[in-house]
């Protein structure tokens, strides 16, 4: 089961858990109120999993690929790791399904505080368009993930500040509506 928590303010190794003391856990319901959708799937059988097939059909995820993030597998590894960890948003939802390994997605809450979401094999997450976030490996330094898109993939990340994009404005409206 996925775990999430508020991060401490430490600037040490980004791959460390960065839990506050005492730990401030974040529930799936709290993530849902931020527009973050979590699912648990059978990663050992992703090629034939009827649940994944149904999710792809229902959400219109027509394109997918698989990426391995490890120093021996990803060209320009060090540069990519730094880029993934820069705070950014996308104009489309970001959907990731962890097939092996583990890592962290960090998202901003409504008060602009970082929440760390620990992802491991079998976890699928959808981050809504317009949410500020970042990704890093954990101390295992390895993840294999499926990337899903509606239509053709768009890889553009817009580093913060990016508040003038319609996707960000729409996301901020979603947060305001959720607060009511």
From TrEMBL:
This is acireductone dioxygenase (Fe(2+)-requiring). It is a peripheral membrane protein. It comes from Atrichornis clamosus. It catalyses: 1,2-dihydroxy-5-(methylsulfanyl)pent-1-en-3-one + O2 = 4-methylsulfanyl-2-oxobutanoate + formate + 2 H(+). The gene is Adi1. Gene3D superfamilies: Jelly Rolls. Residues 1-21 are annotated as: Disordered. It is found in: Cell membrane; Nucleus. PANTHER family: ACIREDUCTONE DIOXYGENASE. It is an enzyme of class 1 (oxidoreductase). One of its GO terms (cellular component) is plasma membrane. It holds the Pfam family ARD. Its EC number is 1.13.11.54. The lineage of its organism: Eukaryota, Metazoa, Chordata, Craniata, Vertebrata. GO terms for molecular function: acireductone dioxygenase [iron(II)-requiring] activity; metal ion binding. HAMAP family: Salvage_MtnD_euk.
